[in-house]
């Protein structure tokens, strides 16, 4: 059974259990609430089910089709969102919001329905109008007409803000699909721990962008789908800052987590929205759309996998290697790198060694995953005062796809950064180490490899594994006198 089919089979089983034993999900106030990967009806679970459906047997395919049904299909939708009575809708020029008239899925008032419709209209104007993405593919007359359909349901009880489901492949395209979305019916503060309007805005931006993505490539790598959808929240609802909750799980706080991580940590891909914030801070919002343009599958588009698309876009700039290294270094001091970085967590330091006249030599060995980094620190003791003390750093790294930077943190708070040039994986630098002027010296080592054991174009589609999933680095620090 293929990788997507295995995921779908797990989704089918979990879905059946949730129907028989009640809804499954996480506390909406916890980090997993946006799209918990173990919640059967999250966006990625529904995407995986849609991808796997053609490979399933007749019974499972029938069950998959039922799970992908819309809430207005009533009892034909066993996902728990099928309305058990009549429904109504409110429509604008491009979007229709459907809702139950009574029952647990009914919104508190018609006013909330119209508020949701207005919020979605603003999201469309922002993502399609201002940022320039293609609108979601039309669905024919599903939902009544070709306008994009959004359904309201009591998702908070199951630990979800919302989800989006690919539904029908676009004619003539292999990997583009129309879709619909489901949002919570009231975003009550009791369930979500925030102002209902704020939760509505960020969820509408996030989920609608999934619908946009499905019109480019619904089989794209999960980290790209989720990290860019979480990043776009920041561009639409900058004051809400709901996505900050994920930073401690992603590549800002945890540099050893690969940039494209999804399987090892179900929160990291949300936290990696900071990567796009870093890129747009340097190159503007269009760079994210450029990456999706390279990942696009429609017509004669390039159809690159996620990291290949990132590499292609950065090729004409500084390149992935230099940019990823700068990103890792920037996360040591987010306050200096991001507009709102003073409230962000800083990168973890893997190892700290205190150097003194009696401890003048220290070697630290680390193993670094692909597209990941580690920081080690060396601090001077008070005995290293005056006298021309220096710290000599020598690094032994893999010959290919490696990068090293040294950051001197001064006692006055200033940062002095040095590039360590590697020759066949070896390089070094010597920096001041007087305790009166230097608080610590940080060595950042980066494995910039993005190579996979996979001949197909998309890592997700073929279940590829990274070639460099544990490159070995060694850094030796020696205290010397000038």
Structural class, by secondary structure, is: alpha+beta
Radius of gyration: 25 Å
Q: Tell me the β content.
A: 15-25%
The main sheet comes to: 5 strands, mixed
Task: State the separation between the terminal residues, measured CA to CA.
Answer: 64 Å
Strand tally, please?
Answer: 14
Average pLDDT figure: 88
Give me a quick take on this structure:
The protein has 482 residues and is of the alpha+beta class. It has helices at residues 3-21, 43-52, 58-67, 110-130, 189-192, 196-217, 222-236, 268-271, 273-283, 286-295, 306-314, 319-330, 334-337, 459-462, and strands at 87-91, 95-100, 148-153, 162-169, 177-184, 351-355, 361-368, 372-380, 389-396, 402-410, 415-420, 426-432, 438-447, 471-481.
Protein architecture, described:
Helix 4 links the parallel strand 2 and strand 3. The longest helix is centred in the middle third of the chain and has 22 residues. This protein is of the alpha+beta class and 482 residues long. The N terminus is likely disordered. The chain starts with a helix and ends with a strand. The strands form three sheets. A five-stranded mixed sheet has the order 1-2-3-5-4. Strands 6-8-13-10-11 form a five-stranded mixed sheet. It has 14 helices and 14 strands. The relative contact order is 0.09.
């Amino acid at each position: 059974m293929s990788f997507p089919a295995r995921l779908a089979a797990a989704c089918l089983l979990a879905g059946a259990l949730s129907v028989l034993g009640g809804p499954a999900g996480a506390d909406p106030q916890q980090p997993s609430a946006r799209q918990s990967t173990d919640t059967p009806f999250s966006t990625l679970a529904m995407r995986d089910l849609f991808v796997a459906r053609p490979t399933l047997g007749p019974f499972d395919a029938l069950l998959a089709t039922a799970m992908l049904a819309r809430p207005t299909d009533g009892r034909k939708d066993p996902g728990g969102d099928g309305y058990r009575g009549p429904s109504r809708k409110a429509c604008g020029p491009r979007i229709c919001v459907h809702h139950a008239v009574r029952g647990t899925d009914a919104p508190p008032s018609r006013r909330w329905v119209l508020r949701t419709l207005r919020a979605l209209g603003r999201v469309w104007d922002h993502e399609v109008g201002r940022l320039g993405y293609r609108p979601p593919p039309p669905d024919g007359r599903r939902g009544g007409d070709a306008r994009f359909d959004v359904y309201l349901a009591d998702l908070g009880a199951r630990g979800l803000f919302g989800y989006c489901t690919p539904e029908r492949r676009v004619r003539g395209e292999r990997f583009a699909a129309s879709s619909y979305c489901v949002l919570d019916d009231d975003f009550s503060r009791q369930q979500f721990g925030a102002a209902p309007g704020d939760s509505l805005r960020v969820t509408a931006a996030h989920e609608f962008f999934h619908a946009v993505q499905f019109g480019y490539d619904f089989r794209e790598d999960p980290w790209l789908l989720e990290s860019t959808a979480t990043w776009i929240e920041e561009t639409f609802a900058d004051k809400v800052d709901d996505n900050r909750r994920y930073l401690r799980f992603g590549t800002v706080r945890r540099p050893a987590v690969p940039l494209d991580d999804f399987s090892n940590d179900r929160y990291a891909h949300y936290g990696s929205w900071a990567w796009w914030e870093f890129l747009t801070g340097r190159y503007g919002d269009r760079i994210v759309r450029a990456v999706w343009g390279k990942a696009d599958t429609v017509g004669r588009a390039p159809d690159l996998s996620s990291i290949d698309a990132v590499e292609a876009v950065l090729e004409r700039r500084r390149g992935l290697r230099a940019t990823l290294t700068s990103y890792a270094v920037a996360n040591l001091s987010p306050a200096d790198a991001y507009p709102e970085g003073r409230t962000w967590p800083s990168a973890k330091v893997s190892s700290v060694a205190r150097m003194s006249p009696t401890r003048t030599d220290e070697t630290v060995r680390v193993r670094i995953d692909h597209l990941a980094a580690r920081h080690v620190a060396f601090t001077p003791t008070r005995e290293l005062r005056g006298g021309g003390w220096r710290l000599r750093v020598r690094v032994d790294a893999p010959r290919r796809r490696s990068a090293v930077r040294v950051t001197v943190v001064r006692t006055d708070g200033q940062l002095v950064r040095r590039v360590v040039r590697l020759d066949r994986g070896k390089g070094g630098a010597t920096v001041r180490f007087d305790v009166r002027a230097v608080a610590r010296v940080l060595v950042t080592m980066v494995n910039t490899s993005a190579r996979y054991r996979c001949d197909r174009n998309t890592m997700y589609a073929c279940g590829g594994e990274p070639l460099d999933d544990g490159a070995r680095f060694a850094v030796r620090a020696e205290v010397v006198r000038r």
